[in-house]
Amino acid sequence: MRTLFSFTFIAICSVINGQDIDRILNSKLFSHSGSVSLNTTSRFERHSSNPFNYVLSADYTPEIFGIAVPFSMMYSNQKFSYGLPFGYWRLAPSYRWIRTQFGEANVQLSPYSLSGHRFRGVAVDVEPNQQWQVSALYGRLNEYRPADSNGQNGVLQRLCYGTKITYNGSKYSLSSSFFKAKDLANSDLDIAPQENVVLGFSGYWTFAKNIRVSGDYASSALTKNTNDELIHSNLRVQNLAGSFLPYRLSTTVFHAYKINFGSPFLNVGYEYVAPNYQSLGTYFFANDFENFTINGLHKFRNITVGGRFGVQNDDLRNQKNSSNRRLVYAANVDYNGSSRLSGQINYSTFQTFSRVEKFLTEHDNTDPYAYLDTLTFRQVEQHGDVAIGYRLRETTTSQQQIQLFVSLQNAQQNGNFVTSSVNYSWSEKSGRNFGSSVFLHHDAFADESRSSFGTTAFFGDAFSEKRGRWRVTASHTQNFKNQNALILKASASYVFQKKHPVQMQFSQRFGKDYSVLLSLNYGYSFGR
Fold first, then answer.
1. CA angle 17, 20, 21 (to 5 degrees)
2. CA distances (Å), 217 to each of 240, 368, 452, 519, in order?
3. Closest CA to 146 of 155, 137, 138
4. What CA–CA distance (Å, rounded) separates 225 from 288?
5. What are phi and psi of 373, to 5 degrees?
6. Using DSSP, how many helices (H) and how many strands (E) does the chain show?
7. How far is CA 13 from CA 68, 137, 312, in A?
């Protein structure tokens, strides 16, 4: 098979993003970039065994014809590590409407088939125009790994291939995808090899002024053990994915689908995933549930109102010992009435209902009230917050504003929580700034309550044409046990010759937990 490109190059790299062939040929023969940084920290506190720590790090990236080969290292008095681009590699050249990936690749065919699972192999995306898109892949999902001395943790080699074809019209789009994965049997491992085929369809249709209906459907046929006996069944004809897989005793076909209907102002959605649905193209997949959601959004002049309602059920076939139902109500209001005043209100409630089945039938119980509290369970959590901001004054050289924030949370099993704060800030274009804040936190449980109160103030400025900045901060907190803590901080930074930033920070904590922190950071970068 002739190669697609007229040149061959080899590069060892951790990650190389898509390289356009034209850009590579027009790039410089050699260029490089890098940076060096030194971070030191001195911490003095009670029972401190090693108060001084430092970290020296550097990275260097040479580029040959636009292909980067990064190198990094770090040295510390606690740990030394270095990184060479040998962990995994990916080469992704592209030319016009053809994009390829070699090595470590990540392709998503469908959320119900190949999604989020990295593989090693080759992938090609072809997009000759805005209407047609074609993707194809072949590679290895899992690498063979022999079992340990206890005969555990062995992994079979798993190969896969797939394709996806999409056609985009002016008001609609249609896609179909095919994915297959198969384990290679190995007599050294006592593991049953699996085989999986997933066939998927998706698309959308927009009509009547931005009203859209979209959907996603998948049929997954999974064989738990390819060594099982072959059987003849009409199911192979009746099920889509089953038509591409030999039927065995351990073969099962699952279905999943999702549909949405609505506009940007109101949307209704439903999703169904069959019990035990599984695809070998995902690391983890939630199944045995159905979701029903309604989302709304509308704007009235300066006010935007949004809301959401959702229901989730599991145990769709009543096969489990317990079932759950979750309800979600949420609403939010945004206000932007003037150039000075803005505000936001959010509220949500999460309710979970659990029901335990077969409890009385599986236990010898003659008292119908003995385990009444274990049969049903309800948990309610409500959350609301209010944020209001107001610009006190705004000129061409300075700005002053005040903000109010209040958050309340009620959890039926854990109590109530309230957090509030008032913040004031003043800043000038020259770099001078000042701010202060007051906060209060309170939580209440069934048998106790706790509160804490605190204040913070800071003042800072810039100098030397804003190449340097400094800030001083003071904070004081007091908790419900009448314990006080005072924290003083001072920081400064300066950039020498635009490439040498230096930062210094000093902080001291007074109180029961006394501590002093001093840090110095330096950095230098080149070729960027």
1. 130
2. 11, 45, 52, 56
3. 155
4. 22
5. -75, -15
6. 4, 30
7. 7, 21, 44
User: What SS3 class is residue 370?
Assistant: coil
List CB contacts of 380: < 8 A, sequence separation 6 or more.
349, 350, 351, 352, 410, 411, 412
Query: How far is the C-alpha of 130 from the C-alpha of 228, rounded, in Å?
Result: 46
Residue 244, φ and ψ in degrees, nearest 5: -110, 15
For residue 373, the one-letter residue type is: D
Strand partners, 57: 37, 74
For residue 510 the two structure tokens come to 């007074």
* Of 276, 270, 344, the residue nearest 306 (C-alpha): 344
For the chain, give the number of residues. Answer: 528
Residuewise pLDDT in 10s, the chain (528 residues): 333 222 223 232 333 344 445 555 566 778 888 899 999 988 887 766 667 888 888 888 787 765 666 677 788 876 545 444 444 566 667 777 888 888 888 888 999 999 988 899 999 999 999 899 999 999 999 999 888 777 788 889 999 999 999 999 989 999 999 999 999 988 888 889 999 999 999 999 998 888 999 999 999 999 999 999 888 665 554 566 667 888 888 888 899 999 999 988 899 999 999 998 999 999 888 888 899 999 999 988 889 999 999 998 888 887 777 778 888 889 999 998 767 889 999 999 877 666 554 433 333 444 444 444 444 555 667 889 999 999 988 888 899 999 999 998 887 666 788 999 999 999 998 889 999 999 998 888 767 778 889 999 999 999 988 899 999 999 999 887 777 889 999 999 999 888 899 999 999 988 777 788 899 999 998 885
Closest residue by Cα to residue 313 from 272, 255, 348: 272
Which residues lie closer than 8 Å to 271 by C-beta, 6 or more apart? 256, 257, 258, 259, 289, 290, 291
Residue 472 φ then ψ, to 5°: -120, 130
Specify the pTM: 0.69
Q: Residue 359: helix, strand or coil by DSSP?
A: helix
- Burial class (CB within 10 angstroms; exposed 0-12, middle 13-18, buried 19+) of 317: exposed
Instruction: In whole angstroms, give the CA distance from residue 217 to residue 206.
Output: 18
Q: Let me know: does 40 contact 53? Beta carbons within 8 Å.
A: yes
10 Å Cβ neighbour count for 242? 22
DSSP percent split of the chain into helix, strand, coil, nearest 5: 5, 60, 35
DSSP assignment letter at 229: P
What are the distances in angstroms from CA 286 to CA 112, 289, 327, 426, 499? 10, 8, 18, 49, 49
Q: What is the CA radius of gyration of the chain?
A: 31
User: CA-based angle 41:44:47, to the nearest 5?
Assistant: 125
